[in-house]
# Entry
Amino acid sequence: MTSSPGLPLYPDALAANQSGRLEDQQRRNLAAMAGSLRKNELVFAGLATILGVVVLTAAGPAAGVLERTLFGAGALVVAAILVFRAVSMGDSLTQDVRAGRVEQLQGAILRSHYSTGSSSAGESYFIEVAGKRFDVARMTYEVAPEAGIVRVYYLPRSHKVVNLERLADP
# Structure
């Protein structure tokens, strides 16, 4: 990625994004990201299944049977939902990648950054354009201008920002 003030975030994809679609490399990268998210859902489903089975089969005092049963059953329900989502590819990013449609919004940009802890894992980055807020990666946040007029290209369901270009101030 090469970007500088006034240039789009992904210059090679700008023409495709301006015409309302994903560029081929963007589609491949986002499909890989969506696949990784589905894989993570399956891992968490496996962990929830193990937890549910352990809790349901654990011996303990009779006083806690109802709580253990409810907790174990809840863990198995969560596991089933995660497996269904992963297998059906029903997450919003996968649906967006399949559709390949890109929307755009133009207006003044506002950047914000929140930290919920001392590590970088607890950091969240946002840009807001024309009153619409987008959760973005740190790289996108750092490349985005601190002020000015921009056009943001994003996926309609997941609101994933796929490109950003700075426009001349009116």
